[in-house]
Amino acid sequence: MSKATKKHQYTLVILKPDALVKSLTGNILTRLSEARLRIIGAKVVRVSRELAEKHYAHLKDEPFFDDLYNYFSGKAYGRKYERVLAFVYEGEDAISKVRKIAGATNPLEADPITIRGAYGRINKKGIMENVIHCSDSEESAKDEIHLWFDPDEIIEAIYPTKKVIRNKCEVLEWA
Ligand code: IDP
Ligand code: MG
Question: What mean pLDDT is predicted for residues 88-109?
Answer without folding.
Answer: 98
